[in-house]
């Protein structure tokens, strides 16, 4: 068989195996890296022997370098500077102090437990400083974790990759050139970061300029221009200062993504597809090139090294870096558990093994084996259990509390009061200063501005709340506000008061839910509340009368006499959606129209200024006689 065809066959098998693993992982809802590693090892020399990555020669290093550039650029595209600003201090500490903690802790564990020489121990620790953005991203989508935690993990994964990769190269350079002074090593690290950042920043700006101004280019061609420029910037940085290209690709992605580029979503889709292909190819190749015998030869000391990295070093890292943050203990505990290593660690370890072997330095294969052991243990243990841990700690995005309410009126104040009484944060947004006095009297925070301004929503804390509700008197405006909030900030629950058929609002793909009931006339019900023509009631749906309770309440709703506002389920309070399906045990909170004349109410002692009291109302609790007889008949039949 000709060498060229042999290489072609190898690459075809790699691509087929990688994509098959991705498809199977999506079907089984498993982290794709788990199947990629297993399949790569199975196809490699230690398995059935179909793949022989060493046959690619220096081509393997070329594939690793160019694919890593795509992966890191795509990671930079995902970083939103506005979101990072909310966790900036913790993120800065994770990338700086956290890197130092992992480097020192990991090297101590590798030396004392794994019995590696200090220089090789430091090299191992520098490689596993990085977490895996290509593992973190799909994992976070799968488990649907709290947004603040997700932002921190994504930011750490992307930003620490270039820092860790460059740090690893500096450590390797120090080992290969044993006469290197510590000061020179530190200066080399800073110089690579500076050169990579400068080239990446300028290149990212140029890419965005081309995307905005080059109207003669088709969109497809623009995508390819960005890819060509990315590889060009990566190579330029490598020529000016070796190993600075990884920093260039991340910075270029961040600058490009935050330059308000039109059609950016389509570019992200294209780059995401390239990233999936790159990750699939790299993991299959690198796993196939792994010697199982070298992993087994490591011994128990190396296993304990990885365990210390996971259960001692990582928790210390998180506790120190998030000490002054507003994260609660459940969020911090989850961050302690999640730190899977990924493709960058595998790529760097494989290249370092080659470099050390070529220079006649022992430990290259052992380093590679220990890094892959770290990848396997962290990905399998943490990746497979992340969903269970999130649910146990109750930090899914659906568990987020608090609300941002647009529209300060009697009904919205009533809803805000319930959230406030449960200790959840509530922020109201309105442009009418006349409404502020009532809100401030209830110690509610009000922002006097337009919710169309994204910065106002950020100030209100929309990124960390569980619910966004738009309920001004203008239904069309409510829908537009809610749609924009859903697209830009993605709160777990987005509701709005809008007409039955708002413009483009009947899309089945819309993330905006209609609040309360269909055809809700908010202006009329606000007048009812102001005039004291409503009662505030609560009822709990029980198993015995569940069907008849629903029918009874729906009759009141259709008659325009009742509006369900909130539902309490499993001790969680949620704003009622028009399409909400009720369950046994739900506690409904509603307002009921009271048609008694105002004069009669005043004579009976009711006052407009008196806060509505939550009570069980006989109009709802007492079922009609006909239905009660049906209940008794059904009971007798069952007996």
Automatic annotation (TrEMBL):
Tagged with keyword Transport: yes
Membrane-crossing residue ranges in chain numbering: 7-28, 58-77, 89-114, 120-140, 152-172, 192-211, 223-240, 246-262, 274-297, 303-321, 333-354, 366-390
GO molecular function: antiporter activity
Domain Cation/H+ exchanger transmembrane, residue spans: 13-391
Residues in RCK N-terminal domain copies: 404-497
Protein name: Sodium/hydrogen exchanger
Keyword terms: Antiport, Cell membrane, Ion transport, Membrane, Transmembrane, Transmembrane helix, Transport
InterPro entries in the cross-refs: Cation/H_exchanger_TM, Na+/solute_symporter_sf, NAD(P)-bd_dom_sf, RCK_N
PANTHER family linked: NA(+)/H(+) ANTIPORTER 1, NA(+)_H(+) ANTIPORTER 2-RELATED
Entry superkingdom: Bacteria
Subcellular location: Cell membrane
Membrane topology: Multi-pass membrane protein
